[in-house]
Amino acid sequence: MTGVGDPDDELLGRIFLTRVLEPGDEVAGRWVRELGVGEVVRRLRGEGAPLAGVSEKRWAGMRARARLVEPERDLEAAGAAGVRFVRPGTAEWPGQLDDLRDGRPLGLWVRGPAGLRMWALRSVAVVGARACTEYGAHMAVTLAAGLAERGWVVVSGGAYGVDGAAHRGALGAGGATVAVLACGVDRPYPRGHTRLIGRIAEQGLVLGELPPGDHPTPSRFIVRNRVIAALTRGTVVVEAALRSGSLVTARAAQRLGRHTMGVPGPATSAQSAGVHELLRGEATLVTDAAEVVELVGDMGELAPDRRGPVLPRDLLPAGVRHVLAAVPGHGDATVADIARGVPTTEDDAIARLYELRALGYVERHGDGWKLTRQAMISLRGGRDVC
What we know:
With 386 residues, the chain is of the alpha/beta class. 44% of the residues lie in helices and 12% in strands.
C-alpha cells in the first residue's frame, strides 16, 4: 500500500477493509469512525494492539484475512472489468447512505456509466418475493415501468421473482434501474440473471459492497437490504410471505424514516401475508406508480382521484335526486308517500316529479308515480346488487 498521507491511502485502505470486514459490521464501522481508516488497517496488519469489541477468535479470523489482501490488485482487476470504487466523501457518493451511521458501507463497487449520487436522489426500491405469483410479477413490471416513465430510478436486488420483474419493467420502458448485489459485481448472482444484470450494467448501474470475485451468503443478502433501503426515497414491497427477506428492506426503510409501501394481494395468498402485516402497521397501500410518486415525489405530484363512472342521475340537482330516490323500485307511490320519503312538501315533490318525467325517469299512472324501464336499468347499473 502507499504511504501515510498519500492521496490514495484512504482509497486503498477502504478497498483493503472490504476484503477483511463483513458488510454492515457496526463494530468495525465504529473503529473507522473513531480511529480512521489508516489506523484500522495498520492494526489488522498486526501493527499494534487488537481493537476492542470483538472476541480473540474473531480478531484472529480478521487478521488471517488481512494477510491475503492486496488492494492494489483488486483495484487493477476492477478497472479491467469496468468497475469503479465509490467511497464516502467523494462527488459520486450518495449522502443518504450516511444515515446508516456505523453500518454505512466502507464504499461501493459500481459497474455502469451513470452517476450514482444523481440517480439515487430520485430513486424508489421495488422488492418482493423470489417465488412470486403471476400477479406479483405483473404488478412489479407495471409499477417499475410506470416509475421509469415518470423519470424515477427503480432499485432492486437482482434476484428472481419480483426483483427481476421490476428491473425488466424499468428497462422495457427505456428507464433507469439499479441492481444492488450481495456479491462481487463482476460475478452476477443468480447465474440465471447473468444476461439481465449485464443489461442493467449497460443501461443502468450494478453495485455492491463486496470486492470483485466475492460470493454471496445468506447473511450478506440480509445486510445488503439496508443499502437498498437507505439509497432510495422509499421502498415498495410487491409480494412477501411472513418470512420474506424483502420485509427486512421495508423495516430498514422504516427505521431510516423512508416511505414504506405495500401492494395488497388476495387475503388468502401466503405470498402477500407479509405485505398485509406491513399494511396493518405503518406502511401505505399503493396500487400503481402514481400513488408511489405521490408519497416519494415533490409537492404537487398527486395521484388522480379514484372514482367510479359519472351516471346521468349524478348530474341532477340534489332536490331532484332525493325525490327520485323516494320513488319505489317496484309498483307506484302517491305524491304524499313520495313527499314523506324525502321529506318535503307535496307541492315540491310534484314539481320535482314532473321534472323527472320530462327527463324520462318517472311516469304517472293515475294518482301514482313509478320509475320508467329506462330509469330501472340506469339505477340498477349504478348500484351494488347482491
